[in-house]
Amino acid sequence: MISKYTCIALCLLTMGCGGGSSDETSTPASTVPDQNSGTTPPPDINPDPTPEPGPTPEPNPPETNLDSVVVPEQFDWSMYKEDEVKIKTVSSTMRPDGELAGLGGKHFMKIVALDGEQKELENPLQRSLTSRTGETRTKLKLPNEWYGIKVEVTVGSQVCSKVFSKEEVTGEIEVPCDIEMPAGDGE
């Protein structure tokens, strides 16, 4: 048993002592005999490399403070635009007074957010029924990186939609539907 451990230790010891570099371009370290003992010291395998000069620091680096930054008074610090808006479903037919005729009745309405590239986001912001006058009021909170919204209203079997930028989503907005109203109908 002892000879087995001795053999393993001897094998490990001989494998640990190596035969040097196989790189043919390297030059062997010079060995100079020590004058006092008469023996040759081992070669220096890892000589200290000469450090390369680094970048020279600026004599007076600029100060990094915000004293010189001026923020305009009208700057909006909020990360979103929030507005209460009235959305009306209207006919694309003009009334005699030049206004679009409202489409009364309860209609299914879906509001979808549009990202900065005007692509629809996956989940709608709101799904609801309009009042019997074809209107709804809602409070919308739109992040600044969004383009705006798309409102879809289903009137009967027809789906009417309109895209609004964030700047347009304020006060009262109208979603026109290409439905003709008989004379005297509407609001």
Automatic annotation (TrEMBL):
<protein>
    <recommendedName>
        <fullName>Lipoprotein</fullName>
    </recommendedName>
</protein>
<feature type="signal peptide">
    <location>
        <begin position="1"/>
        <end position="22"/>
    </location>
</feature>
<keyword id="KW-0732">Signal</keyword>
<feature type="region of interest" description="Disordered">
    <location>
        <begin position="18"/>
        <end position="69"/>
    </location>
</feature>
<feature type="compositionally biased region" description="Pro residues">
    <location>
        <begin position="40"/>
        <end position="62"/>
    </location>
</feature>
<feature type="compositionally biased region" description="Polar residues">
    <location>
        <begin position="22"/>
        <end position="37"/>
    </location>
</feature>
